[in-house]
From TrEMBL:
It comes from the Bacteria. GO terms for cellular component: membrane. Keywords: ATP-binding, Nucleotide-binding, Transport. The lineage of its organism: Bacteria, Bacillati, Bacillota, Clostridia, Lachnospirales. This is ABC transporter ATP-binding protein. It comes from Roseburia zhanii. Residues 26-247 form the ABC transporter domain. PROSITE patterns: ABC_TRANSPORTER_1, ABC_TRANSPORTER_2. Belongs to the ABC transporter superfamily. The keyword ATP-binding applies. GO terms for molecular function: ABC-type transporter activity; ATP binding; ATP hydrolysis activity.
């Protein structure tokens, strides 16, 4: 028996894109000899192999083809070209709702899913308690699943997927819907699975989980495999893809927020700008540019935990300001302000500014926040005539991803030195 669980051999998936609905109809009915569509390669001659017992992550930007390849592997979609060979019983957690009947109760859906995979009623009976215990959604199991919240849904779907003895587990992003406790329970299950020598293939935008749980990672970009190797290298490469992509998309990406682009390449073009940024202040001084710089000097909003990083901002003064204060802070996604500082707290002397001056401020520090997503806020303020004044503030202007390969408790890592005597 071979040691390959999944073999993807030159797989392409081509969609036909029609400008007009009637072209689609004509094409479907074979009424036209002219090509009335454009071909869109969701996947283009994709090749990879997953060995039995490996945990492999697939990463890539939106639309890079991650879901498409998982659907082809699980048989939900057919490839246009190429071949997929699977050796082992697959259990898949794809889009929420796939494989569930909304009118059935939770328990009925457990039986529906189990039989679809080939289990007898008795075999499902044996596993039912484990499934219900893992899902832990109480009496809701007797309600139709259409009444479930997305969190409950993913609990039940995951409980079914892992308790039916799969040899290969395929998970597409679904876990991000569950609460953190359930996520951690699922990741524990992943570890158990790994120990049992089962194969796991999962797609996630959570780069920390990829580095923590995967033996290998595959980076997709526009339907191609851009990289395959250690998770750390793949995440590193992904950071570069994000930067380049955002350069391409710059026109749509935030340029309209400020007027002072001046035709030069902006640092912030390396960042995904929050379209709902809260911006206010008199703008007598204006934050015209900003970025994160990682420990290699690269502009990136993906930073490794424990590494040195810099928050950099450029301020243009429209009026004379005697004592400006520059500030930054990070919030978590719940809106809790976690840390930050300003040039006044740090007792940094700033010389008086004249209209037309430009000041660049860099805050350099070690990134010890836990792995996860954070939001950056920036500010330029002051106390002219003793009164607190906001010149320019940008709240939650962009996100920062902290990638971590080590778990600790809470918001940040104290980097405890441990002695055992
Ligand atoms: N039914 C469809 N018709 C036309 N194009 C499609 C269809 N389904 C997917 N695509 C295209 O195929 C490409 C790959 O899509 P896919 O959903 O696999 O990306 P993804 O990497 O999973 O993205 P995301 O991270 O947003 O889920 C995209 O360009 C998408 O627009």
């Amino acid at each position: 028996m071979s040691d390959i669980a999944i073999k993807v051999d030159k797989v392409s998936k081509v969609y036909r894109l029609y400008d007009r609905q009637r072209d689609r109809l004509k094409d479907a009915l074979n009424l036209t000899k002219k090509q009335c569509y454009r071909e869109h390669f969701a996947l283009d001659k994709l090749d990879f192999e997953i060995k039995k017992g490996e945990t492999v992550g697939i990463i890539g930007t939106n639309g890079s083809g991650k879901s498409t390849i998982l659907k082809i592997i699980t048989g939900v979609l057919n490839p246009t070209d190429g071949e997929v060979t699977v050796d082992g019983r697959i259990s898949a957690l794809l889009e929420l709702g796939a494989g569930f009947n909304m009118e059935y109760t939770g328990i009925e859906n457990v039986y529906l899913n189990g039989t679809m995979i080939g289990f007898t009623k008795e075999e499902i009976d044996e596993r039912l308690q484990d499934i219900l215990d893992f899902a832990d959604i109480g009496d809701f199991v007797n309600q139709p699943v259409k009444t479930y919240s997305s969190g409950m849904f993913v609990r039940l779907a995951f409980a079914v997927a892992i308790n039916i003895d799969p040899e290969i587990l395929i998970v597409d992003e679904a876990l991000s819907v569950g609460d953190v406790f359930f996520q951690s329970k699922c990741y524990h299950k992943f570890e158990e699975f790994k120990k049992m020598g089962k194969t796991i293939l999962f797609v996630s935008h959570d780069l920390s989980s990829i580095t923590k749980y995967c033996d290998r990672a595959i980076l997709l970009n526009k339907g191609h495999k851009l990289f395959e190797g250690t998770p750390k290298e793949a995440v590193d490469m992904y950071k570069r893809v994000l930067v380049n992509q955002l350069d391409d998309d710059d026109e749509e990406n935030g340029k309209t927020l400020w007027e002072h682009d001046g035709g030069e390449t902006l640092w912030r073009s390396t960042l995904p700008i929050n379209p709902e940024v809260l911006e206010y202040g008199s703008k007598k001084a204006e934050i015209v540019d900003f970025a994160f710089v990682d420990n290699t000097g690269r502009y990136s909003n993906v930073i490794e935990k424990g590494s040195e990083m810099t928050v950099k901002m450029k301020v243009l003064f429209h009026e004379d300001i005697a004592e400006p204060i520059f500030a930054f802070s990070f919030k978590n996604l719940l809106g809790i302000e976690l840390c930050g500082t300003n040039t006044m707290f740090e007792k940094i002397e700033i010389t008086p500014k004249k209209a037309g001056d430009v000041q660049i401020i860099s805050f350099k520090q070690k990134m010890d926040l836990q792995g996860g997503e954070y939001l950056l806020s920036l500010g330029c303020t002051g106390y002219p005539h003793g009164e607190f004044t906001v010149y320019h503030r940008l709240y939650d202007v962009c996100n920062l991803t902290v990638v971590s390969t080590k778990n600790t408790v809470g918001y940040y890592d104290m980097n405890s030195e441990i002695t055992v005597e």
